[in-house]
Write a structure and sequence with these properties.
binds serine; 43% helix; 340 residues; Rossmann fold; 2 domains; alpha/beta; three-stranded parallel sheet
Length: 340
């Protein structure tokens, strides 16, 4: 039987790129992309769907013969702190709806992203492992940790094959991120190209786990394509790409845009970042389904600047096209220095 896929939240930062990747893998006719926004020419979604409308999801699943759901709709950390009731409802109720439908309609597989936000101030700050103290202190983090428990519960009690990844901050050039604490790592590229100046809302040495979107999409596809018996984590897998602080990213961008002027003006998002680990261990993902990230700070920065300057119709400064000697960045030293 052919896989028939429903993506919920297809116009968001992950959805925009995952929809394209899933259409490539399963055929466009087998992937239904839905979002709270009505379809517009070029938007990439087929239908308007409110993830809090249980009946509507159920109807689509039945009518379209859906076998897999990718539930991507969520409210991120910074917005979640401003709208706690709405964040809780959106993040948890949507998952419960989808898990219930998966159980009742006997769907094959569900994907639901968790986040490094599940960790809290008492979790290890460096090389944070899969199993450790996990006591989130943001609404977003609490909602994701709760969701992880629900995923595990539905797998254990009802056999729902739900799979999940704890994504780090995601960096991409297509759709913008929506209200997270790691958004600066995307904004900085736009401002660096347009104004050669950026005011960062985190302190310069706030190191956080990050990942380039092509790696995040590949990780999702690889996890979903892994045979069921190899998946032993039914809450959510730690997933690591790179770790850096705003000053590291600024230094990487300056290799191409030397004029980049940074100003640091931490706001309420600093407190959120302070509760998260600086770096993550992802041994289980590597061991159980062969995870291996491709991009580091250097290659991500080069690709982001190339792709974004093209999209913006800008001429790439000489230094961008001549990658040549790209000195190593003190990422590990940075983390090392802070850890010791
Ligand atoms: N990128 C997310 C946020 O900042 C973390 O998962 O909220």
């Amino acid at each position: 039987m052919k896989d028939r896929i429903l993506i919920i939240g297809s116009c968001g930062q992950i959805g925009t790129e995952l929809t394209i990747a899933l259409r490539k893998q399963h055929g466009a006719e087998n992937v239904i992309a839905s979002d709270i926004h009505a379809p517009q020419p070029g938007s990439g979604n087929d239908i308007q769907l409110d993830v809090l409308d249980h009946e509507q999801i159920e109807k689509i699943v039945k009518e379209c013969g859906i076998t897999q759901i990718y539930l991507l709709a969520a409210m991120l950390s910074a917005n979640g702190e401003q709208n706690s009731d709405a964040a809780w409802k959106l993040n948890v109720q949507s998952l419960l709806s989808v898990l219930k439908i998966a159980k009742e309609q006997k769907l094959d597989k569900i994907f639901w992203p968790s986040s490094i936000a599940v960790f809290g101030p008492d979790s290890p700050r460096y090389n944070c492992p899969q199993q450790t103290r996990i006591e989130p202190n943001t609404v977003y983090g609490i909602s994701k940790r709760t969701g992880e428990y629900w995923c595990s519960y539905y797998f254990e009690k009802h056999g729902v094959d739900v799979r999940s990844l704890r994504f780090p901050g995601l960096i991409s050039y297509t759709a913008p991120p929506g209200g997270g604490t790691t958004d600066y790592a995307v904004d900085i590229f736009h401002q660096a190209l347009e104004k050669q100046a950026y005011t960062c809302f985190l302190e310069e040495d706030t190191c956080l786990p990050m990942m380039y979107m092509p790696d995040a999409i590949r990780a999702t596809l690889e996890l979903m394509n892994t045979p069921k018996e190899k998946i032993h984590i039914r809450t959510s897998y730690n997933l690591a790409g790179m770790s850096f602080a705003p000053c590291d990213l600024a230094a990487a961008i300056r290799k191409y845009i030397p004029e980049l002027k940074m100003t640091y003006r931490p706001d309420s998002r600093q407190a959120i970042a302070n509760g998260w680990p600086a770096s993550i261990r992802d041994d289980q993902a590597r061991k159980e389904w062969g995870w291996n990230p491709e991009y580091n700070l250097k290659s991500m920065t080069a690709d982001m600047l190339q792709k974004l300057s093209k999209i913006k119709g800008m001429t790439i400064p000489e230094t961008i096209s001549q990658q040549g000697d790209f000195p190593d960045f003190p990422i590990d030293n940075h983390i090392f220095a802070k850890a010791h």
